[in-house]
Amino acid sequence: MNKIPPYLQAGDTIGILCTARYVDIEQLQPAIKLFESWGLKVKLGSTIGVEWNIFGGDDTLRAQNLTDFFNDPDVKAIVCARGGYGTVRMIDSVDFSGLLANPKWLVGFSDVTILHSHINSMYEIPTLHASMPVIIDNKTPEAIDSLKKALFGDELAYTFNNSSPYNRYGEIEGEIVGGNLSLIHTIQNTVSELYMYDKILFIEEVGEWMYNLDRMMWNLKRSGKLQNIRGLIVGSFTELQDNEIPFGLSYEEIIWEKVKDYDFPVCFNFPAGHIADNRAIKLGHKATLRIGDTISFWQE
């Protein structure tokens, strides 16, 4: 049984830190004002404003900051300031015992996929795939509202039209896991590997080469991961790159080629990922998805 963290209440403290790239305090002001408008207090981590190469402090500092927030009884939820790259460098030095003893929501996406997978698979604690502070002022009202609802325990319910020719209609219910495709690929065969057997898999991506998308999807198929999932949700795939000689397939065709022989439902163009309308998803938590001419998704 998953250990669902307590939801937030007005007066609670939310902690902001860096597990990957550097961020300065000024970049966080819109998010701080937003969280405070929700009645929350904000505690900035020791990594905020600290610069070590491209990172928000060296690996030891970033690991210690996350450990400290796990152990801090006043911090009720932890929000990663930004993604980029770097979480894989520090995760093995993080002490998760505080989180296991007192679960709390961890929020982020992109590079934070490593933490989502590790926490979901190792400790069966749900996490929140949602917008991060460094770009919070560029998000749609719907994305911001979904983050608030997820943190405060309101139902998440999304309905939208979706006419992708690669959708496979159906209705599924089950635990949803996943995140950034390249990070899922990076952590295969490690202790943080995403456990996706009998789960609804969610994937998104940004800035990748077309041939590499193909390579990563073949890895998931050939390793037997795709044949055992309950359903597939494909979020945004943005800023994709191609060679001078085009790869020849769209990202939808690349993905569909790997899943067309299975019978589970498939949803493309889900509003989550590196886009302004980045809707919150509780990973490691049960979801219901209905795919037809209209897409419906909800989580308690």
TrEMBL record:
Record keywords, A-Z: Carboxypeptidase, Hydrolase, Protease, Serine protease
Domain LD-carboxypeptidase C-terminal: from-to ranges: 173-289
Pfam family, one: Peptidase_S66C
Residues the record marks as active site: 110, 204, 274
Residues annotated as domain LD-carboxypeptidase N-terminal: 14-130
Molecular functions per Gene Ontology: carboxypeptidase activity; serine-type peptidase activity
InterPro entries given in the database record: Carboxypeptidase_A_C_sf (IPR027461), Class_I_gatase-like (IPR029062), LdcA_N (IPR027478), Peptidase_S66_N (IPR040449), Peptidase_S66C (IPR040921), S66_fam (IPR003507)
Record-linked CDD domains: Peptidase_S66
UniProt KW Protease keyword: yes
Keyword Ion transport attributed: no
SUPFAM superfamilies with a match to the protein in the record: Class I glutamine amidotransferase-like, LD-carboxypeptidase A C-terminal domain-like
A GO BP entry: proteolysis
Family: Belongs to the peptidase S66 family.
PANTHER family reported in the protein's UniProt record: MURAMOYLTETRAPEPTIDE CARBOXYPEPTIDASE (PTHR30237), MUREIN TETRAPEPTIDE CARBOXYPEPTIDASE (PTHR30237:SF2)
Protein name: Putative MccF-like protein (Microcin C7 resistance)
